[in-house]
Amino acid sequence: MTDTAAARARLLEIVKDKAIVHGRVTLSSGREADYYVDLRRITLDGEAAPLVGIVMRDLVKDLAFDAVGGLTLGADPVATAILHASAAAGERTDAFVVRKAGKAHGLQQRIEGPSIEGRRVVIVEDTSTTGASPLEAATAAREAGAEVVAVATIADRATGAAEKFAEAGLEYRFVYGLDELGLA
Fold first, then answer.
1. Which candidate, 139, 141, 134, places its Cα nearest to that of 155?
2. Could you say which DSSP state residue 15 is in?
């Protein structure tokens, strides 16, 4: 078993143990569901966050890109986990944050971090439902002059995000689907 395979297996155990909450919830999309996958419990967890970086970095290792980021807040810890996993492997991947709206003060930037103008980027997210957040982040990244090469997420809820990304011409990858999470 490779280190990546071990990391993926352990991360799945932690997700199932700590992040899946059963019960009726209203999602950010406005849809209702019988469970909630709260991946912030994972992406901000001291054991799980490094595993997120290893697993997500592996998910996109065949793509050529310079930076990862997405719409704050779900994407932020995912992007920084990838940044740290890349550094630990002796490589460089920058991270960036897309604000929900531009700042009204300072430099009034919508995207924070190293410039992504003229660079290839991967939009990341913790979990995808409708795909609205990654699509908004992709639009902002393109407006900032970046080339968006893909969208990558930890968990896919199989509720329309993949189709939206395909319509937008974006390659989409995820680590775990509903089957692996025990939710299918």
1. 134
2. I
All residues at 6 or more sequence positions from 91 whose CB lies less than 8 Å from its CB, including other chains = none
Strand partners, 123: 69, 151
State the CB neighbour count (10 A cutoff) for residue 20.
17
Cα distance between residue 135 and residue 15, in whole Å: 25
Tokens encoding 64: 């050529």
Mean pLDDT by 10 residues, the chain (184 residues): 87 97 84 89 97 98 98 96 97 96 68 97 94 96 97 94 95 96 90
Nearest to 56 by CA among 38, 74, 72: 74
pTM score, two decimals? 0.93
Rounded to 10 deg, the angle between the 75-88 and 132-143 helix axes is 70
Chain length of the chain: 184
C-alpha distances in Å from residue 85, one per residue of 93, 123, 154: 9, 17, 15
Of 161, 162, 157, 159, give the one whose Cα is nearest residue 179: 157
What residues form DSSP beta bridges with 82? none
Strand partners, 181: none
pLDDT in tens, 63-74: 999 999 999 999
